[in-house]
């Protein structure tokens, strides 16, 4: 043992049925001393140590790997240790094939998301660079053209794991890719749409996010953002679908939590003039809806900065000044409603008359009518109006229902305005990003947590089906040999919730009965499902029921479930809001139905309950996701206190277990995640072959020939009946070689184009030169001719002069000779 475990040896130690990464401190005196990576020192008696209890760590676990499919040791501890090792070095991203695990650093990592990093990842395939959310975004963007179908990114994890930030980073990367796509400058409309999509984030964050005990910026609604792309790669438009805003948070928060960010931002950022206009001169402590939880500020949240971001975003999205003013009036009105107090005097009576006046002025309501609605119930019976006083508890419920209705209708209006601004053509492909509430388990879990965890069960089912059962089914159908893997199946838990006479059905059924109460509902739930292994009937609490979710057991408080599920108004409250002097308030409630009207309509025409609407929305979402090519990002929080550089192994291990991460690693390593039909495969990769490709032949044989050139051992690929199955590493090599062949071909084409252009330019220049030469030669020849002519004239002149002089001389000589002869004759005669 001493020789095997030298000092400093990295080992796995089994402690309390868990494997822990550790380092050997000493191995003498019969005692093996090791220190785990998580700070615990263990003293083990060498005589009792077995190889199952302590054994050497594989080199891949010692060094750490970027893709956990490459780990030689496939167990939970090795996966967690790999995440921990990378987390210590600020490498928060780790791949599991094409699935990305992201550990929240709870701090800014320098240079991790700057434009240089965007540029770098946009030029490389998945797997060529270290794991990063930009690598997933880039592959998602490429797959629009590679696969010719819609893409979607599912971001999952507990509240506080970093889902919302991941969504913003994906939008940032895709926006940059859109602007740089295909060398085509985006149109002015495209640029406006991109800006609107990016700027919608701070608005949705302000109105839909809040501080919870687990997360300072928790999304209290779900959203599915779809980006529509043109064939040239520009963002043409988009759409936001919202799910189940937590209305109850407007009027009530758990200790240590806050209301929605926008309220604190408005108080921190509004000018003195606006504060006076909205009756917001007091600090947040003065408003019951903000101060009741005991938490008003958080060091990680800058409310004034958020206000400025929201105002800038509202301008980009072209909200008018009147709309912004009315929206802030509504928010201020909600805060004023929360300060209305009651006392008992023959029924509930309002003691804060000035607050009622302020709220009425902000919301355009009649103060007397608001006072009446909050303190007494008015119903029409046989044509006569009958009023009955409310208790203080009922009056508070009335006040809170008005506040929740105002806020939720305003939120829906904001989403509608955003969609109107970013709407575009849907004629090509889309990328959907799902950012939906994480699994929640608080001290008190209400109707909202029930729906949230139901949504997470559906998403887990989709993940399971996609990663596990669909993979196995595909392999079996295609006759591909591989080792089948057992996986976590949550189908029975979902059956408990949504099957016939399941929890949802019973909640909706009881909601339809006028005399149904939360306690009659609880009795039916216990009676029907107490024997179900996934249902929990608490022994002590008389107002709770529980569900054993994939992420753990959760107890839900049945009180308030029916009222929240019905989500209807009293006639008098709705009529008061529709009588508002503000067109903004009237428009929000114009199409809202009342409780009495629905009862008159009968069962067939009643408004669907909240849970049934949410169920239908979830099923529609699942249908959209099933028709898309999915990418998964698993967000993990390293500790519950949101502290940087702190990695709690127990917290992380629980998330790894219920997320199916271990099974994911196994299946990604054992299976062949990439598959293409033979025709599609050969059509895409035939350009890699240097030999001439025959026009006729069997696609399967040609595919086989090509694959054998890359892997003769067939370890990285197998042939099915209609498809070829490959490891991701092989596809990455094929894609890289294909890009290289295309690059070289492009260079040859470019060279020929440049040659053609150069020749054309040369011919044009040569023709010009020849013309210049012609004119220059003519000019030179003419100059030479003129010079020669002048010279010839001079020569002619001199010659003529010479001839003339010669002739004159001759004539003179002849004359002289005649004269001499004549004289001689005269002399001889004498």
Automatic annotation (TrEMBL):
Residues 63-739 form the Myosin motor domain. Residues 811-830 have a biased composition (Basic and acidic residues). Keywords: Actin-binding, ATP-binding, Cytoplasm, Motor protein, Myosin, Nucleotide-binding. Pfam families: Myosin_head, SH3_19. It is found in: Cytoplasm. Its main location: cytoplasm. ATP binds at residues 157-164. Transmembrane segments: none annotated. Residues 798-830 are annotated as: Disordered. InterPro entries: Actin_motor_Myosin (IPR051724), IQ_motif_EF-hand-BS (IPR000048), Kinesin_motor_dom_sf (IPR036961), Myosin_head_motor_dom-like (IPR001609), MyoX_N_SH3 (IPR040640), MYSc_Myo10 (IPR036124), P-loop_NTPase (IPR027417). Residues 618-640 are annotated as: Actin-binding. One of its GO terms (molecular function) is ATP binding. SMART domains: IQ, MYSc. Belongs to the TRAFAC class myosin-kinesin ATPase superfamily. Myosin family. This is Unconventional myosin-X. It comes from Oryzias melastigma (Marine medaka). The lineage of its organism: Eukaryota, Metazoa, Chordata, Craniata, Vertebrata.
């Amino acid at each position: 043992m001493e020789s095997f475990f030298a000092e400093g040896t990295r080992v796995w130690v089994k402690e309390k049925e868990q494997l822990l990464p550790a380092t050997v401190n000493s191995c003498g005196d019969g005692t093996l001393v090791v220190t785990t990576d998580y700070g615990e020192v263990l003293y083990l008696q060498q005589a009792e140590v077995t190889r199952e209890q302590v054994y050497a760590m594989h080199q891949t676990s010692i060094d750490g790997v970027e893709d956990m499919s490459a780990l030689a040791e496939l167990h939970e501890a090795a996966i967690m240790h790999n995440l921990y090792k990378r987390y210590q070095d600020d490498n928060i991203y780790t791949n599991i094939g094409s699935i990305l695990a992201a550990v929240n650093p709870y701090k800014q990592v320098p240079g991790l998301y700057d434009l240089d990093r965007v540029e770098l990842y946009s030029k490389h395939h998945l797997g060529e660079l270290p794991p990063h959310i930009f690598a997933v975004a880039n592959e998602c963007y490429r797959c629009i053209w590679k696969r010719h179908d819609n893409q979607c990114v599912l971001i999952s994890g507990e509240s506080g794991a970093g889902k919302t930030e991941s969504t913003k980073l994906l939008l940032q990367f895709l926006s940059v890719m859109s602007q740089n796509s295909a060398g085509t400058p985006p149109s002015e409309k495209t640029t406006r749409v991109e800006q609107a999509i990016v700027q919608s984030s701070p608005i949705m964050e302000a109105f839909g996010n809040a501080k919870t005990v687990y997360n300072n910026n928790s999304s209290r609604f779900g959203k599915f953002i779809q980006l529509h792309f043109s064939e040239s790669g520009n963002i043409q438009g988009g759409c936001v679908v919202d799910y189940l805003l937590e209305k109850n948070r407007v009027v009530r928060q758990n200790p240590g939590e806050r209301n929605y960010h926008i309220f604190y931002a408005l108080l921190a950022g509004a000018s003195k003039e606006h504060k006076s206009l909205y009756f917001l001169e007091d600090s947040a402590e003065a408003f019951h809806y903000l101060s009741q939880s005991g938490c008003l500020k958080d060091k990680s949240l800058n409310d004034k900065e958020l206000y400025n971001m929201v105002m800038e975003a509202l301008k980009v999205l072209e909200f008018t000044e009147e709309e912004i003013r009315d929206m802030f009036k509504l928010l201020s009105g909600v805060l004023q409603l929360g300060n209305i107090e009651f006392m008992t005097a023959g029924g509930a009576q309002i003691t804060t008359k000035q607050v009622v006046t302020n709220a009425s002025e902000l919301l355009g309501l009649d103060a007397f009518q608001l006072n009446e609605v909050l303190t007494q119930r008015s119903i029409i019976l046989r044509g006569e109006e009958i009023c009955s006083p409310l208790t203080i508890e009922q009056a508070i419920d009335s006040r809170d229902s008005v506040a929740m209705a105002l806020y939720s209708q305003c939120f829906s209006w904001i989403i509608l305005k955003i969609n109107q601004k970013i709407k575009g053509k849907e004629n090509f492909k889309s990328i959907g990003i799902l950012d939906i509430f994480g699994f929640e388990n608080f001290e008190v879990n209400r109707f909202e947590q029930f729906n949230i965890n139901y949504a997470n069960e559906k998403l887990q089912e989709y993940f399971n089906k996609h990663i596990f059962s669909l993979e196995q089914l595909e392999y079996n159908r295609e006759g591909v040999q591989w080792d089948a893997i057992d996986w976590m199946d949550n189908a029975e838990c979902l059956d408990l919730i949504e099957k016939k006479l399941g929890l949802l059905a019973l909640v909706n059924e009881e909601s339809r009965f006028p005399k149904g109460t939360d306690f009659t509902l609880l009795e039916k739930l216990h009676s029907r499902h107490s024997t179900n292994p996934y249902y929990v009937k608490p022994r002590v609490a008389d107002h709770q029921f529980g569900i054993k979710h994939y992420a753990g057991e959760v107890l839900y408080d049945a009180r308030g479930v029916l009222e929240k599920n019905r989500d209807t108004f009293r006639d008098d409250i709705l009529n008061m809001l529709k009588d508002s002097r503000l067109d903004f308030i009237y428009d929000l409630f114009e199409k809202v139905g009342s409780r009495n009207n629905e009862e008159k309509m009968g069962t067939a025409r009643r408004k669907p309950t909240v849970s049934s609407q949410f169920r239908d929305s979830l099923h529609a979402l699942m249908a959209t996701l099933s028709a898309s090519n999915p990418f998964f990002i698993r967000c993990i929080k390293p500790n519950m206190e949101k502290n940087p550089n702190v990695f709690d192994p127990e917290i992380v291990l629980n998330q790894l277990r219920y997320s199916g991460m271990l099974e994911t690693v196994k299946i990604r390593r054992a299976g062949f995640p990439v598959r293409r039909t033979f025709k599609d495969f050969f059509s895409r990769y035939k350009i890699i072959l240097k030999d001439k490709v025959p026009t006729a032949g069997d696609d399967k044989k040609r595919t086989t020939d090509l694959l054998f050139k890359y892997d003769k051992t067939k370890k990285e690929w197998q042939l099915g009946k209609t498809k070829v199955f490959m490891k991701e590493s092989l596809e990455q090599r094929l894609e890289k070689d294909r890009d290289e062949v295309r690059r070289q071909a492009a260079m040859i084409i470019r060279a020929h184009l440049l040659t053609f252009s150069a020749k054309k330019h040369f011919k044009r220049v040569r023709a010009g030169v020849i013309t210049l030469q012609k004119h220059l030669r003519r000019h030179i020849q003419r100059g030479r001719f003129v010079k020669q002519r002048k010279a010839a004239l001079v020569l002619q002149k001199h010659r003529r002069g010479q001839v003339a002089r010669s002739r004159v001389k001759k004539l003179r000589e002849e004359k002289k000779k005649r004269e001499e002869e004549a004289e001689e004759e005269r002399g001889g005669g004498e």
